[in-house]
Amino acid sequence: MTDDEAALVRRIAKGDRAAFEELYRRTSPWLAVRLRRRCPDDQVVAEVMQETYLAVWRAAGGFAGAAVDGSAVGWLWTIAAHRLVDVFRKQKKHAEIRHEVPPDSPAAEEEALSGTVGAELGAALDELAPELRDVLQAMVLDGLTVRETSVLLGVPEGTVKTRARRARTLLREALS
């Protein structure tokens, strides 16, 4: 994906439906794959995609882009990731109403991550500090670049690189 997506977002901010359709055509397959890595429920993925693109249409004027070292694709993923977490939280809240949930139950993001990896790797990931696990989720599972991960997590690119290197080292040690 390129800076062309940023130009499309700027056109969308002016109400250009053709630009919106083009952005959707270019990014929806990529976005669906990344969402499915975190959520196997096709209905939830479809709902999150719909809410994401609706938010893009409504909030395109708020996209800062290169001014904050962000890409349109990173911005799009940030919206989708937040929507997915919202769905997980709603599901968890509804489940709590029906069942008593123990106080040490994992967060929705952790449940999504553990469902995508094997038991041994999942246990090793659980042992990582949250900031290390977040970097791995963004870069490995979601396929974001260092810059996009930096924007998503709100930390400098150098910090993202350091955390990624540290997390990989710790995982190698845990799995050997």
Automatic annotation (TrEMBL):
UniProt-listed Pfam families: Sigma70_r2, Sigma70_r4_2
Signal peptide region: none
InterPro entries cross-referenced by the UniProt entry: RNA_pol_sigma-70-like, RNA_pol_sigma-70_dom, RNA_pol_sigma70_r2, RNA_pol_sigma70_r4_t2, RNA_pol_sigma_r2, RNA_pol_sigma_r3/r4-like, WH-like_DNA-bd_sf
Domain RNA polymerase sigma-70 region: 23-93
GO MF entry, a single one: sigma factor activity
Domain RNA polymerase sigma factor 70 region 4 type residues, every copy: 120-170
Keyword presence, rRNA-binding: no
Keyword terms: Sigma factor, Transcription, Transcription regulation
One Gene Ontology biological process: DNA-templated transcription initiation
Top-rank taxon, per record: Bacteria
Annotated TM spans: none
Entry similarity comment: Belongs to the sigma-70 factor family. ECF subfamily.
Protein name in UniProt: RNA polymerase sigma factor
Organism, scientific name: Kibdelosporangium aridum
Lineage of the organism: Bacteria, Bacillati, Actinomycetota, Actinomycetes, Pseudonocardiales
